[in-house]
Design brief:
Helix content is 24%, strand content 26%. By secondary structure, the chain is α+β, with helices and mostly antiparallel strands. A six-stranded mixed β-sheet has the order 11-10-9-22-23-24. A six-stranded mixed β-sheet has the order 14-15-18-19-21-20, covered by helices on one side. Strands 3, 4, 6, 7 and 8 form a five-stranded antiparallel β-sheet that branches. A hairpin with a 2-residue loop joins strand 6 (90-97) and strand 7. The longest helix has 21 residues, at 2-22. The chain is globular.
Length: 525
C-alpha cells in the first residue's frame, strides 16, 4: 500500500512537471523593435511566468547559435535586448521556453552602420481602428520595407469602454489593449520579418486631444459651443508612458519619456511626443461678451515642452545624417491656419448642429496652433542651414504631400491605415480652394479614398521619393525631393480675408470638415 501511494505521488509530481514545462506558451508577439546596427529588442507575452532562451543565428542552420536567456516579468511579459550583433545582417531567431521551442523561426535585419550611404525604403502610417480590417499590411509587406513606423492612434482604448480613463488607470488594463493590437493577423505576419517603431497619439493615451495635464472637451448645445479643458491626475500620464516602455520594444532614449531617435545609414529619425508634454489645446480660445469665441495664442503655448524641444533642436544641429525625418503623430502643415481663420469667421450653427467654433477647436491640436514651437524649429533649421528635414505625420485620416511651400518642411501625411477617410485634404483643396497640399493627395485630382500608407524611398544622398499608396498597391501621389532643401524663415500668417464667395463655400463644406473630429466626449456625433 505504501509503495502504491508513493507511485501515485510520483505520478502526480510528473504531471505537475509536465504542466509547468509544457503549458507555457507565447500568447502575443514576438515583436522586434529598437533595432540599431548592433542591437535589437524583442517583446512577447506569455500565458504564465516562465524562463527560457532566445537563440539567434545569422543563417537558417543555427550552426553558430547565440543564446540570450530571459525571465518573464510580473505581467508575464518578456522584453529582452539582443546585443553585439553585426550590421546589415539578417538574423533568424527561435524562442525556447523550458527547453521547448514555442514559435516558428522569425527574422529581422539589423541596420547599416551610421552614416553609411544607403538605398532602402520604409513604410509608415497611423490610425488603425479595431473596427476595420488590417489587410493594408498585406500590401505594405509586398514593398519589402526595412522597417515600419506607426505614428499613433493605434490602441484606441476609449473604444472598449465608456470610461475614457479606464485603461490608463493601471498597467494590467493597458496590457490588454496592446494584446489586441499584437493580435491583428496581417500586421502580426508582417512583423515576423519587419522591425517596428511607434509613438503614441491622442487615441492611445489618456483621452482624445489630451495634453500634459488635461484633455479638451468640445460640446455643442443648440447653436452654442463650449470648449473646456478637463484636468486629469498625473498618474494617468505616467501610466501611458510606463505602458509604452513595458509592452512595446521601444528605444527608451530619454528616461520617463517616449520621444526618441534612431539612425539608419545616412538617415536619422526623430520621434516627437506631440501629446503628453503639450500645453492645453483649448487655452487659445476665449469667449467674448456676445458669445462668440475668439482665437488668440498666449505666450508660452508650446506643443513640445522646453526639455523635448531642446532635445530635438540639439539633435538636429548635431546630426550628421543626409536626410532627417521628424516623425509626428500630429499634422505639421503651418498653412492650416487659413482653415482655422474661416472657422472663426463662421461660427453660426451648421446643418449638422455643429459650429465653426467647434471645428476650429478640433483643428487646434495641430502644429500650426502652436506657433512658438513651430517658429523656433523652422528658424533654427533656416539659421543653421540644416538641410533635408522632412516631416512624416498622421492623425488626419487621409493622405497628402506638400513640398514645403505650405507646410514649412516637406511633409508626407498618411493618417488612415484602417480608418474611415476624413477627406480633409480634398475638402480643403476642392471646396475651400486652398492649395495646402501642393503635391497631391487623396481626392486631389483623383477619387481614391481607400486605406493608405506612406512609403519613403531613399536614394543615397541624391534624393528621396515620398509616396502615398493605397491598400491595393495604387500610388495616389508622389514627390521626388532632391538634396538641398532648407526651410524659409517662419512668418506668422495674418488672418485670412474672406470674400462672399469664400463664405458660401465655407458654410457648405465646414460641415464636412467637422466630421474629421473624433472627440468621443464632444457631445456631438
Amino acid at each position: 500500500m505504501k509503495t502504491q501511494k508513493l507511485n501515485i505521488l510520483f505520478f502526480l509530481w510528473l504531471q505537475l512537471v509536465f504542466i509547468n514545462d509544457f503549458s507555457q506558451s507565447i500568447t502575443y508577439g514576438p515583436v522586434v523593435g529598437a533595432v540599431t546596427d548592433h542591437s535589437a529588442r524583442i517583446v512577447f507575452f506569455t500565458d504564465q511566468s516562465c524562463k527560457g532562451d532566445i537563440y539567434l543565428s545569422a543563417n537558417d542552420g543555427y550552426s553558430k547559435n547565440i543564446s540570450f536567456p530571459f525571465y518573464s516579468d510580473p505581467f508575464n511579459v518578456v522584453k529582452i535586448e539582443l546585443k553585439d550583433l553585426a550590421p546589415s545582417t539578417v538574423y533568424h531567431y527561435r524562442i525556447v521556453i523550458n527547453n521547448r521551442e514555442t514559435k516558428t523561426i522569425n527574422s529581422f535585419k539589423t541596420f547599416p552602420k551610421p552614416n553609411e550611404i544607403s538605398n532602402f525604403s520604409f513604410v509608415f502610417g497611423s490610425c488603425t481602428e479595431q473596427h476595420h480590417d488590417d489587410s493594408i499590411f498585406i500590401e505594405m509587406q509586398k514593398h519589402n520595407p526595412a522597417f515600419f513606423l506607426h505614428l499613433g492612434d493605434w490602441l484606441y482604448p476609449d473604444n472598449f469602454t465608456t470610461d475614457p480613463f479606464y485603461f490608463t488607470q493601471n498597467l494590467e488594463r493597458l496590457k490588454t489593449v496592446y494584446e489586441k493590437r499584437y493580435a491583428m493577423p496581417n500586421l502580426s505576419k508582417m512583423l515576423q520579418t519587419t522591425p517596428v517603431d511607434y509613438i503614441f497619439d491622442d487615441e492611445d493615451g489618456v483621452c482624445d486631444d489630451f495634453s500634459k495635464s488635461s484633455h479638451c472637451v468640445i460640446r455643442v448645445t443648440g447653436n452654442k459651443t463650449d470648449i473646456k479643458e478637463i484636468p486629469y491626475p498625473d498618474s494617468l500620464r505616467r501610466n501611458i508612458i510606463k505602458g509604452y516602455q513595458q509592452f512595446f520594444p521601444g528605444y527608451n532614449e530619454v528616461k520617463d519619456e517616449v520621444y526618441h531617435s534612431f539612425v539608419y545609414g545616412n538617415c536619422e529619425f526623430f520621434f516627437v511626443d506631440t501629446r503628453s508634454t503639450r500645453s492645453p489645446n483649448g487655452e487659445v480660445f476665449y469667449k467674448k461678451k456676445n458669445g462668440r469665441w475668439n482665437y488668440k495664442v498666449p505666450k508660452g503655448h508650446q506643443l513640445l515642452d522646453s526639455a523635448q524641444l531642446q532635445w530635438l533642436l540639439t539633435k538636429l544641429q548635431s546630426s550628421k545624417a543626409d536626410w532627417k525625418f521628424i516623425v509626428s503623430g500630429t499634422t505639421f502643415n503651418k498653412s492650416y491656419k487659413k482653415v482655422l481663420d474661416i472657422c472663426i469667421k463662421e461660427q453660426q450653427e451648421l446643418p449638422n448642429k455643429m459650429t465653426g467654433a467647434y471645428i476650429a477647436a478640433s483643428l487646434a491640436s495641430m502644429w500650426f496652433a502652436y506657433p512658438e514651437t513651430q517658429k523656433k524649429l523652422l528658424d533654427v533649421c533656416n539659421r543653421n542651414k540644416i538641410k533635408n528635414v522632412i516631416v512624416l505625420s498622421g492623425d488626419a485620416h487621409t493622405a497628402a504631400i506638400d513640398d514645403g511651400k505650405n507646410s514649412g518642411f516637406p511633409e508626407l501625411m498618411a493618417g488612415g491605415l484602417a480608418q474611415k477617410n476624413s477627406k480633409l485634404a480634398s475638402i480643403i483643396k476642392n471646396d475651400l480652394r486652398l492649395n495646402l497640399w501642393n503635391r497631391g493627395g487623396q481626392g486631389i485630382h483623383n477619387n481614391n479614398f481607400n486605406d493608405a500608407f506612406g512609403q519613403v524611398q531613399v536614394f543615397g544622398r541624391d534624393s528621396v521619393k515620398l509616396s502615398a499608396i493605397d491598400k491595393y498597391g495604387t500610388e495616389i501621389c508622389s514627390y521626388f525631393l532632391k538634396d538641398g532643401f532648407i526651410p524659409k524663415k517662419y512668418k506668422l500668417r495674418k488672418n485670412l480675408k474672406i470674400t462672399f464667395g469664400n463664405k458660401i463655400r465655407a458654410l457648405k463644406n465646414l460641415l464636412k470638415i467637422a466630421l474629421h473630429h473624433r472627440n468621443s466626449n464632444s457631445g456631438v456625433q
